[in-house]
Amino acid sequence: MLNLFENSHQSTLSRRRCLQMASGAMLGLTGEARSSEVTGFGRAKSVLTIFASGGQSQIDMWDPKPDAPEHIRGAFLPLQTKLPGIHFTEDMHGLASIADRFTLVRSMAHEDLDHGSATYLTMTGRYYPSLSTNPLPKPTDLPALGSILNRLPFESRFPYDSVYINGPALIPINIAPGMYGGILGKSYDPLMVGDPTSDEIAIPGLSYESRLSEIRMRKLIQLKKSLDRNQTALDANEQVRNNNRFYGQAVDMLTSPHVVSAFDLNKESAKTRDNYGRYRSGQACLLGRRLVEAQVPYVNVIFNHTNRGQDLAPDEIEEYGWDTHNDIFPALKKHLIPRFDKTITALIKDLDNRGLLETTLVIVMGEFGRAPVVALEKNFAGASAGRKHWASAYSIFLAGAGVTRGAVIGKTDRFGGEVVDQRYAPWDVAATMFHALGIEPHSHFYDELDRPFPVSVGKPMLALYR
User: In Å, what is the CA distance from 183 to each residue of 178, 187, 445?
Assistant: First the structure.
């Protein structure tokens, strides 16, 4: 069978047409049958992932257990949401008020118990070769989901098919693996945007004044090529191919007012910026919405850039992550939940009010959850009790692009520590993302050595659409 993903860098087919042709062939469906029989397929123009790094506590946020013993249930009271009989915890008023706009999944689980490899799992949809470790990024890593998307054959109105905001994710000061091109090469790295509050336009050095005419930029590129000797031999070099891709993207970035405007948060009203929150994660989510409007296919917002920066800077709210081994209740109540609740509520409402939620799949998730036992850990900073890493049960939510509004999928036991119904894992979330974009998850992409790799090893979460 013809694999339309092979030699994808040479393809000029439109994104939607190419991917639907490939997926239709693999599924054995006509276009009409596909849209009516394969639930959720191709409903999304964009995917917006919000990554809450560090491991949110499912029990202290999404899946409270008020009848459990005190050392399990924690310090927070349950809060009734918009959905009858469904509760979050007491400080999540905003998200409780919009619970009828998303599907909560309380049955995520996997087997990785450390941040580095679990972040890799979340960002790639595949286990790291060594579970429960904290490796640095390597060129032999499997590619990030955004990098796979960059590799697939489609055209986009934006120079980058994937953009990561407020990154890179740090653990707590080292760069986490799983966010880069890996075996595909650096030219397939997503565009990594740092602190969106650090400059007038979210990409440092990019401004309206920095834009050059496209004719001038193309001439500069031609001049560069004319100075290269043995161009044919050079084109066979991976680094040269990477550089050529970067040059092309730079031309598009520096010549397009559409691109510059997408990164300019000053285009937003003061009220909108206030609604999202005038802090890194708030403005990062607002930038994510702007890039969805600019039709970027995949946007990943790293909600908190470090998983546990509070150890080094306990007075800096910006440095707090969800890795709350100790002091979990004051950290959640004073710093983490208020910002998360405010910002994510504003994001979902804003997308919905603008009509963008119809064509945008939103995924809000971390790398794992927290243990169903509250205890002080002597090897970590902090004076009061917290919770350890826990991957046997945690919660995420999804919204938009056909996902059912106001639903809860899955169930945990009475202590919130084990999944007892409808278990899912990060590879299923990855498959759902590609499925929503109209990409058959079990099709293949090829690396630089022409080795085939499945786009995903999971299955789409079709229960989201019922």
Answer: 11, 11, 11
